[in-house]
Structures are given as structure tokens and as C-alpha cells.
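hey so u asked for the seq, here:
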Amino acid sequence: MKIVKKHSLVYLGLLLIFVMFSIFVSSGAAADSSYKINLGQYQTGPEFPGYRIAEAFVKNVDELSDGRITINHFAGDLLGDWETQEIHVKEGSLNMCMAPASATFDPEMEFVRLPYVVFSLEGAKKVYGPGGGGKKLLNEICERNNTHCLGVEPEGFIVAVSTNKFTPLPGDPSIKKLKTRVMPAKIEEITGKTLGFMTLSMSWGEIHSALMLGTIDAAIGPCYGEAPLFKDVVKYQYNYNYGFAAGPWIINLDLWNSLPKKDQEILQTAMDEAISIEWDRAAKTEEESMAEMREAGAEVIDLTKEQMMANISALRDKVWSWAAENMYSEELMNKIKSFAEPLPD
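ran it, C-alpha cells below
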């Protein structure tokens, strides 16, 4: 009981600190004034891109402002889980956070989970990098939720890991009987079935043991950097690249609008530079993870152009049509189609 009370007091103390800072900052900052901004993000160490971006952002802001603007970085769940942090930024009790696409924040935010909006790193950077259509749409969604999107983190493409070899074509006989884990979400279930798998909804923490015990034959959902977590229980990795995890970094809109243009430019430049490092790192992350899988004895399989085209066509047809009928407006779907990565010649 004493431990619980102690932790509660620590949490309340931290909450009081960042609320006081938020009130101070959101009251408006005069040009060249000194102030502090509280940034929360749920990742906890330098092996994670969110943590690296936050630390680089802190350093960049300090240098660009000559120490005038201080970013207080709260890593992990000190300020609540990632969905809680998003809501706090929206409400203004927290200044900034990294905000993975969440229906709790706004259902349209999850458009990034539509399969094959992008399918190459070059295409992803064009869509979600500075000036990209996906980044602009994310900011439109953010602004109606009283937040501003400073940038989009490249968390990586999605692959399939499997204990059995198969032909990665929708409806191929070799894939139809594979019991395959999908994320517990309707759009993920439809994606898995359209790819040709026999799908089972399963949480992340159950995947490894289910593959080891043979409860499932394959899993879709891990990105390149996560695939090695299953290197001891799978024999194959298929680089579908059907999904790209794009994580917005948001700041409270009232706070953003209260800042002098000079300081807005400092924050934007600092975030652009921090995220740019991760875009450059993305290809290396893919290469290193594939090397780790191969070293463990797994076969890493790139889809042929014909296989990729077949999967893109099937998923854009069936899954996008389902989303248009059940999730999103025609206007939103048209926006997504306008910036989606074009099919290769």
C-alpha cells in the first residue's frame, strides 16, 4: 500500500509540474523569451526511433534557440500510455507527444493502416515526409483535434513471418491453409484474408509462443525491425511491405499558434532534422534485421514484381473498397488515392 501511495505521489508531482509548465507556455511567449515545453513519448531507450527522435529534438531546439527554449523529455509511460498522451496534448494539459495512429484520437487518423498506400521507402518518404500528401492529411486531422503535426516518424514496413514456405499470391493453394495471426482490428482481418491467409486475431504478446507451439503457422504485423524477435521460431520472412507505420509528432494547437513565428521555425527545423536522421536510418534498419534473420537460418524472400503487383491490386481493390463503405467518406478516400504511391511501370 505504501509503495502504491508513493508511486501515486510521484505521478501527481510530475503531472503538476507539466501542467504548470503548460499553463505558462500556453499563455503566450514573447519573442526571445525563455520557456519550457513538455514532450512525452512512450518509448524508453535509444534502440527505439521515438526515443532517438525525442533526444535529437531536445538537442536541436537547445542549439537553435541558444538555450532559450527547453524541451523536457518524459520517456516511457511517466505521463500515461501513448493514447493517454495524445488526448492530453489535444486537451492542452501536455504540450507535445509522439502519436501513433489511433482511432481513440480520431478514426480517420488510422488511414495510415490502409494496405499499400505506399510500398517502397522512396514512396513512403514522398507521402509522409515534409510537403507530402500523407503528412498534409495527417495535419488536417490533427488540427481539427486542436493539435499540429510537426512531422511523421518512419516506423517501418510490415512483413510476414512463417514456419512454412508458400507462394505470396492472393488465393494461391499454398497459402490458403496457413493459420495466420492478424492484429485484432477489422481492417487487418480483411487484409489478411485478401492476401489469402486463414486468419486468427491475436494480440502481439501471444505471437511467439503460438508460432513455437504450432497454434499458428505465420504472423503478419511485425515490421522489419521486429521480425528478428521471432527468428528462433520461424523459417521464412516474406517482405510484403503492405503496411507502413507512420507516427505523427504533435504539439497542442493553441500553444503552437501562441508562439512567435521565429520559435515555430525553430521547433519545425529541429523536428525536421531529428526525423530526417530516422528516414536515413530506415534502409539500414531493414538491412540489419534481414541479416539477423539470415544469420539465424531463416530465408528472407522479396516478392517478385508480379507478386507485388498482384497483392497491391487485390488489397487496394477489396480492402480500400471496404474502408470506403464502412469507415471513411468518399472525400477522404479520394484524398488518399491522390497521394498514394503510383504503381510501378
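The mean pLDDT is 90. The beta strands are 35-41, 69-75, 96-98, 147-162, 179-182, 198-201, 218-223, 236-239, 244-252, 299-302.
lmk if thats what u needed
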